[in-house]
Design a protein that fits this description.
Layout (H helix, E strand, L loop, with lengths): L1 H9 L5 E5 L2 H14 L4 E5 L12 E7 L8 H11 E10 L9 H4 L8
Parallel strand pairs: 1-2, 3-4
The structure holds S-adenosylmethionine.
């Protein structure tokens, strides 16, 4: 969803690259882009621990519910720094914890699902 909104925001001269590790999400995203007639967005298969985007390419990096799934957060932030141009920005809409989760809460599925 974020990639489609970004594609609208950047306009016809801008470009958006969406990255996901699953072929299913990539198929879904590509067919949605085609249905919406968005030709300034492309989807690449890859891990955000090794983003398939060249150095300094992006003005903005967005994560919506992805960084929080990755154990190697420092590695992911290094990748974000690598792909951002100098002065670029990132925006994150992820679950963040400021203190350790108690053991009993870790195993309570109702606390982790909507
Ligand atoms: C909660 S969904 C968020 C999807 C997207 N933000 C949206 O609005 O549709 C998490 C997505 O992250 C992908 N993902 C999880 N870990 C990843 C990783 N290390 N590298 C690339 N994609 C990953 C999953 O395949 C899944 O499609």
């Amino acid at each position: 969803m974020d990639s489609f909104l970004a594609a609208l925001w950047v306009g016809r001269e801008g470009r958006v690259i969406g990255v996901d590790m699953t072929p299913e999400m990539l198929d879904r995203s590509r067919s949605m882009a085609a249905r919406l007639g968005l030709d300034n967005v492309e989807f690449r298969e890859g891990l955000i621990e090794d983003v398939p985007v060249e150095d300094g390419w992006a003005d903005v990096v967005i994560s919506n519910g992805v960084i929080n799934l990755c154990p190697d957060k420092i590695g992911v932030y290094r990748q974000i720094y690598r792909v951002l141009r100098p002065g670029g920005r990132m925006t994150v809409a992820d679950i963040c914890l400021e203190r350790p989760v108690p053991e009993e809460a870790l195993h309570d599925i109702d606390l982790w699902t909507g």
